[in-house]
Amino acid sequence: MGDSAQFKEMEKGFDVHQAVAEANRCLLCHDPPCSRGCPGGTDPGTFIRKLRLRNITGAIRTIKQNNILGGSCSVLCPTARLCEGECCATDIDRPIQIGRIQRFLVEQSWTQDINTFEKGEARAGKVAIVGSGPAGLSCAAEVSKEGYQVTVFESRSEVGGVLRYGVPSHRLSTTILENDLRALRDLGVEFRCDSPIQGEGAAEDLLNQGFDAVFLAPGLWKPIRLKEEDIGGVFTATDFLSSMREKKLDGLTQFFSGKDVAVIGGGSVAIDCVESALELGARDVYLVYRRSFTQMPAEEDETLSALRAGIHFLLLNQPVDCVTENGTVKGIRIARTQLGEKDASGRRRPVEIPGSEWVLAIDAVIEAIGSRAESDSPQWYPSVKVNSKNLVEVNAETGETSARGIFAGGDIINGPALVIDAIRDGKVAATAIKSYLETLEVSE
């Protein structure tokens, strides 16, 4: 299997007939629980009702006015436990496929070039957004719609954050992402790529450079490692998925082809990694997870898809260390576990069984254990209060930090979370930023 291998693409979405037929199953609840089940306020109850009445333009506007990343969310959101999980139709048959209806409507807006909103009259006030992931983009859109000047600073070469660099193309195509971003550019949002806001007091310096408010949404890019040293054949999920997304496959397919691979972790990122390794031609791919199947944070449809693809699940197994030879990984040392009492996550804590260690012989390891804030990140905004994990502390109702004029949202305040949660944070902070800027206007 060479670099010319054919990689799996996104499944096609609904056509108009399928979307309308699915919308016609909706019970048109007076107070739709599906809308309450969306953290980002996309309001599926309203857009499905409008589609049923054949008001496609109105349905599209409902989505895009509430969620600037409506296309990306339609395929990435865990709808089964959010909006669809609240659907009343479940008691009769099965939940309405809300995500697929949303995707159809958003794609229809691109096909018909429907203008979903207009930029407000220009107002005095400049806002700097640090990070172009979901939280930053959401905040940028909402602030820009109010007529304020918005500049997004992105440390990488392209816009999108985790949407661009952390999700395989078979889950989120570049076409969907770029069309979502086009709406922000149409609003006049300025993007400055290759522009990291790092170093002593870098965030506060933006306020001294003419910006009236700053929204911090840099995300979490520091991988949690099994062992903090460079070992041949050991990849972080961040680096591995970025290479897959950017199609930097020179040597990657050659390395993985015919090899035995272990992926450590049990979330959606781990599932993305095992499927990608299989696409690269790996012979056997193992997902090693310390808890049970039902306690995996990945969505059920994702885990079932991986099982059907032939992934080997090694559950109740805790990776302890890498086994190396001449600086190259040859296996991972694993201890069997059993479940104890519940921990802070609400799941039962894995407890290692004494004397149960064994070694899995493998050729490559991908660590999808999680991510955290950079250890020196508090220096970038010294006046902002952070907790013991270097996550920024905010007022949950406004996104305000301890520093005047600086707001924050997304993973930098929550830890790793859902895209729709980050979008909600961006909207919450945008409302507070608007009020803050209006206060500055009055004081002047």
Mind explaining what this structure looks like?
The protein is of the alpha/beta class. Helices cover 35% and strands 17% of the residues. The protein has a five-stranded parallel beta sheet, with helices on both faces. A five-stranded parallel beta sheet has the order 6-14-7-8-9. Strands 10, 11, 12 and 13 form a four-stranded antiparallel beta sheet that branches. Helix 1 (16-23) packs across helix 6 (98-112), helix 3 (44-52) runs antiparallel to helix 4 (56-66) and helix 7 runs parallel beside helix 16 (419-443). It is globular.
Features:
444 residues; alpha/beta; five-stranded parallel β-sheet; 16 helices; 16 strands; globular
Brief sketch in words of this structure:
This protein is an alpha/beta fold and 444 residues long.
